[in-house]
Specification:
The chain has 138 residues and is an alpha/beta fold. It contains three helices and five strands, in the order αβββαβαβ.
């Protein structure tokens, strides 16, 4: 409530004018209501409906083990990096392509693991799984 003591006195009003704040709030509400449907990036696709049986045959996998000293094993057999690249290229040509299960010691340098992963990607084997042992209870 604004009070003035008399005519000609210039005392400030002591209440906030709420109408401009309400106008701004309503404009922002309308902007958000209009913009919200534009933010969804979903693509509606009508997928075909077919009946199929579950696939019984699991894809084969290749166990690649990398030790902390830099030695690499292909399904338990020690190989060098050159031979590993050749084996990966021949495995990539098979159908279905095998999954790579990568096992590494805890102290293995990341650079060595990254090289093995790069060889896998370069040869065309894109499915890589990391194998770990469960943590022991203390």
């Amino acid at each position: 409530m604004a009070r003035r003591r008399g005519i000609g006195t210039s005392s400030p009003l002591s209440e906030i004018n709420m109408i401009p704040l309400i106008d701004v709030m309503l404009v922002l509400l309308i902007v958000f209501i209009v913009a919200a449907p534009l933010l969804t990036h979903a693509v509606k696709i009508d997928l075909p409906r077919v009946s199929s049986a579950p696939l019984d045959a699991r894809t084969e996998n290749v166990q690649i083990a990398v030790k902390a000293d830099g030695s690499i094993y292909w399904n338990g057999e020690a190989v060098r990096e050159e031979a590993l690249a050749l084996r990966m290229e021949t495995a990539a040509r098979r159908t279905p392509q095998p999954e790579i299960h990568l096992e590494a010691d805890a102290q293995t340098r990341y650079a060595l693991i990254a090289r093995v992963m790069a060889l896998s990607a370069k040869s065309g084997l894109g499915r890589i799984g990391f194998v770990s042992a469960p943590e022991r209870d203390k």
